[in-house]
Amino acid sequence: MTQRSSRPSRPRGPHPPRRRTGPSRPPVEDPARQAALDTLRAVRQRDAYANLVLPGLLRERRITGRDAALATELAYGTARAQGLLDAILAACSDRPLSEVDGSVLDALRLGAYQLLRTRIPAHAAVASTVDLVRAELGSGAAGFANAVLRRVTEQDEAGWVEEVAPDEDTDPIGYLAMAHAHPRWIAQAFAEALGSRGEPLREALAADDTRPLVHLAARPGECSADELAAMTGGDVAPYSPYGVHLEAGAGDPGDLDPVRERLASVQDEGSQLCALALTRVPLEGSDARWLDLCAGPGGKAVLLGSLAVLSDATLDAVEKAPHRAELIRKAAGDLPITVHVGDGRDSGLPEGGFDRVLVDAPCTGLGALRRRPEARWRRQPSDVAPLARLQRELLTAALGLVRPGGVVAYVVCSPHLSESVGVVGDVARRTGAEQLDTREYFPGVPDLGNGPHVQLWPHMHGTDAMFCSLLRRPA
Amino acid sequence: MRLVFAGTPEPALPSLKALLASRHEVVAVVTRPDAPAGRGRKVERSPVAALADEHGIEVLTPAKASDPDFQARLRELEPDLCPVVAYGALLPESALAIPVHGWVNLHFSVLPAWRGAAPVQAAVRHGDDITGATTFRIVKALDAGPVYGVVTERVRERDTAGDLLARLAESGAQLLVSTVDGIEDGTLRPVEQSEEGVSYAPKVTVDDGRLDFSAPAAALDRVARAVTPDPGAWAEFRGERLKLGPVVPVEEDGLKPGELRVERKRVLVGTGTTPVQLTDVQAQGKKRMAATDWARGVRIEAGERIS
């Protein structure tokens, strides 16, 4: 802080120092931890998204390289583990966390995360966190933070889990939820989708609790996955012919040359596979008009639009929010995509006017928690029912917009049965739509279960937990 | 011809020097923006920018080549041809169209082998006997344009990627000048690359330099030479990262993978086959030193391993 040191010193007055602060320390320059802390505060105070706030802070403050990597690991890791960290902090604090100042709590979470889930030495994790608290809130708060964090250091993560988690024998789901830092209701939803509360659930939660690779999609017709891997240093993805996996580094993948030059976009491999599945179903008759009914912000629309070019088809894209529709227009470039602003349930588009329709419906996002650090603590069980109603209405509308014999892909990034199997079964029954064996259109992808739907999982496929079901309108 | 040269790191320098000494006129250079580098994160001028400064040549550093201001300036410069050596970023079609004769790239492999960012490292890592340098016209697909000329170069037994790249940078510079001459004279007809034999050489990451001592000695030797000097080979010793120089296979036996044996004049490590000898090492926060000095300092115990 050069401004501080260049300020002229205060005239010496007769008044005593305002407060006794103990041995004075030079201000510590710790841009990485400060950025992580500021991100956590924005998440707590403004319901901000960590993965939108942090990249902006890093850019603004010119934090790059190792500092940026550290800030990312600490901010996202802390946000992801919050529930577990809070349970441990509560056990280490002599007052309830609800009475702890919010800023102090952010710092405690940040400190506890470093102690339990990183290789940062304990003394450094404690000292750096206490310094942040002292700089902002004074030495009283710093003393409290110091005392709590020292208690956290008394055990490692496994030791604390044993102490704060429910008993494994009587409540296996509650135990695994705590051990892998998930709210219990989400672990319960995973267990139901997996049909297991044992080892498969543990693997699913563990995979969901790790930092995911960055997935890129090479734009069909513009660049191959091989080329994209060579340009980015990534690895060709196992299942999507357009996919590349990239180690999650410090940088914003949006800054990669091939992404900026529109040769590729950032997109989970599971999303790519679901969009591709729609295009792979054979059709009798015309195949020239495709529709993406819930298109914002446009990832799948661009992939479908590129594939449409290769098949001499065109794509219509419907999006309710004007600013998201604008994002699609920008991303579409010169692809044959027509963007409509409107509600997919009542789009005004011609009934039976389309050969293939994608419904990538709004959902709880429980399948993409890896990529949205704080989302698991913000989502509520009560979010599910209204979303499921919206999903049924959208899928019903899609089956009206597709021509007889045409095909609809219903996709959500959630394994919650109410949003996936429940929606498809209900709508198919009421509309008479035929459920196709969706697994056939995910060639080469293993472990797809008994069908007819496809549920992908991070621990089995390395993708988000995407659900896909293909339906045909009776001819 | 009027040339605008695009390049960034050290291996681009022999080409720029050769073009400066040629009958052509280098009117500007394009280079990646100054980036913080090294200890202390000082902002450093790229080697190409520094050489251009010495010769009083205009330096353009667009953050991306699709930047309209950059392209406007490039148009004003009216280049006949833009030679490129290790520029380090993609060129969009809007930029490709500006020079009369397009952009010509010097790539350090015999195309279509090892398209991509790290062809020399790939050649060493895969144990190629012969590699080389190729000049080709840049098209939108990665390193896929038609070829003007090729020189070949033998990969020597103890070559590191750095050694080989230094030789290719020199021989490639001569190829680039004769390619530019030939384009001006109209005597060169570029030939489309074969679709067979295409391979890709992705960027090399720090993880690629990690040595897995359960691999055969010959493979470890190639990997270590391929990542030297950059980003460097490494392994873990007592839970900390230890940077390693090249490793040399020796004809002996009796060590388990990763097991260390310290002798008076050498330090051996077991592999999946026969052991390798460590040359130099660098512990965290220490200087690079001979492996024997390091081993004496840390007092390696019998049976201790590196992994």
UniProtKB/TrEMBL annotation, chain A:
PROSITE patterns to which the protein is assigned, alphabetical: NOL1_NOP2_SUN (PS01153), SAM_MT_RSMB_NOP (PS51686)
Q: Where is this region: Disordered?
A: 1-32
Matching Pfam families, A to Z?
Methyltr_RsmB-F (PF01189), NusB (PF01029)
Which GO terms fall under molecular function for this chain's record?
RNA binding; RNA methyltransferase activity
Instruction: Return the Basic residues bias intervals.
Output: 7-22
Q: Which residues form the SAM-dependent MTase RsmB/NOP-type domain?
A: 190-474
Active site residues per record: 413 (nucleophile)
Gene Ontology annotations of biological process type: regulation of DNA-templated transcription; RNA methylation
- Protein function: May act as RNA methyltransferase.
The record's comment on protein family reads: Belongs to the class I-like SAM-binding methyltransferase superfamily. RsmB/NOP family.
The name this protein goes by in its record: 16S rRNA (Cytosine967-C5)-methyltransferase
From TrEMBL, chain B:
Q: Name one GO cellular component term.
A: cytosol
What keyword terms does UniProt attach to this protein? Answer: Protein biosynthesis, Transferase
* Amino-acid positions noted as binding (6S)-5,6,7,8-tetrahydrofolate in the UniProt annotation, renumbered to this chain: 109-112
EC assignment: 2.1.2.9
- Identify the Gene3D superfamilies for this entry: 3.40.50.12230
Please report the stretch or stretches of sequence annotated as the Formyl transferase N-terminal domain: 2-179
GO MF term list? methionyl-tRNA formyltransferase activity
User: What residue stretch is flagged as signal peptide?
Assistant: none
Q: Which InterPro entries match?
A: Fmt, Formyl_trans_C, Formyl_transf_N, Formyl_transf_N_sf, Formyl_transferase-like_C_sf, Met-tRNA-FMT_C, Met-tRNA-FMT_N
Superkingdom of the source species: Bacteria
Catalytic reactions of this protein:
L-methionyl-tRNA(fMet) + (6R)-10-formyltetrahydrofolate = N-formyl-L-methionyl-tRNA(fMet) + (6S)-5,6,7,8-tetrahydrofolate + H(+)
Q: What class of enzyme is it?
A: transferase
Q: Boundaries of each Formyl transferase C-terminal domain copy? A: 203-298
UniProt cross-references to PANTHER family, sorted A to Z = METHIONYL-TRNA FORMYLTRANSFERASE (PTHR11138), METHIONYL-TRNA FORMYLTRANSFERASE, MITOCHONDRIAL (PTHR11138:SF5)
Its biological purpose:
Attaches a formyl group to the free amino group of methionyl-tRNA(fMet). The formyl group appears to play a dual role in the initiator identity of N-formylmethionyl-tRNA by promoting its recognition by IF2 and preventing the misappropriation of this tRNA by the elongation apparatus.
NCBIfam families the UniProt entry points to: fmt
UniProt family annotation: Belongs to the Fmt family.
Write down what this protein is called: Methionyl-tRNA formyltransferase
- Organism, by scientific name, is Saccharothrix variisporea
